[in-house]
Design brief:
There is one protein chain. The chain is mainly beta and 239 residues long. It has two helices and 16 strands. The chain has a six-stranded antiparallel β-barrel with strand order 1-2-3-6-5-4. Strands 8-9-10-15-12-11 form a six-stranded antiparallel β-barrel. The chain is globular and about 65 Å long.
């Protein structure tokens, strides 16, 4: 049984990151594909066209520097950034990738750092420990740009962008599977009233809908461009 009420192997991959000396913070997570480690996050978190990006990540309560090469994730509308760090960042622990086996109304979980908030459990991990939220799969759709998106009934917040959306294959806690990268949440424009009188003003309200882009986009691009840092030896299942 996990120490946290769920499998640890996704927690241990999740990082609080930011572009060097800039705010706000975002979320990211490591994956291993064909023996190499990569850092995935939201494309809008590290927006730019330069071949490399200077990243900072929280480690031992301090911001640590890292240079990472970008691999362009296509199509351009996919809000996933694939980064190749200059070192391996986290332990390599078993986790599956993809949406095969996911079903509608299934429980899913997402990890990240809302508004930059985080916890520290130094005897467990030197990294900033992420918050966890839960939702259900409402739909898997293709948006107006033909990008496959996983729609979740779950309350997202700023700072979760780039974090992992995952589930347990066939409900088995020992089979965590990352389905997507958290990208956004739509807003609704709510009218502002002056007493009983409706004004021309509106306020943006979180709709409680989370959007994640399918991780398969990243896997396909990584396999065509195997440039990641060699992954450390895989360790036993934690949770």
């Amino acid at each position: 049984m996990s120490r946290f009420g769920m499998n640890d192997n996704v927690y241990m991959r999740t990082l609080c990151i930011r572009v060097k000396q800039k705010t706000p913070t975002f979320s990211g997570f490591t994956v291993e594909v064909d023996g190499r480690q990569y850092l995935l996050t939201a494309k809008h978190a590290v927006f730019g066209s330069s071949p490399t990006v200077e990243i900072e990540y929280l480690h031992e309560a301090k911001w640590k520097d890292m240079t990472a090469r970008r691999i362009l994730c296509e199509p351009a509308e996919v809000d996933i950034a694939i980064l190749c760090p200059d070192r391996h960042l986290t332990h390599s622990v078993p986790v599956e990738l993809g949406t095969a086996g996911i079903i509608f109304a299934q429980d899913v979980f997402f990890l990240g750092y809302p508004l930059g908030m985080h916890a520290y459990i130094p005897n467990i991990t030197p990294f900033a420990f992420p918050f966890v939220k839960k939702g259900i799969v409402s739909a898997i759709v293709r948006d107006i740009n033909n990008v496959q998106s996983i729609i979740v009934d779950g309350h997202n917040n700023r700072g979760f962008s780039g974090g992992p959306l995952f589930y347990y294959l066939e409900g088995c806690i020992k089979r965590p599977k990352i389905a997507g990268v958290i990208t956004s949440y739509p807003h609704d424009a709510i009218p502002v009233y002056d007493g009983e009188k409706k004004t021309s003003l509106t306020v943006r309200e979180n709709t409680g809908i989370l959007i994640a882009h399918d991780i398969q986009y990243a896997i396909d691009i990584i396999r065509a461009n195997p440039e990641g840092f060699p992954a450390p030896p895989q360790q036993p299942l934690f949770g």
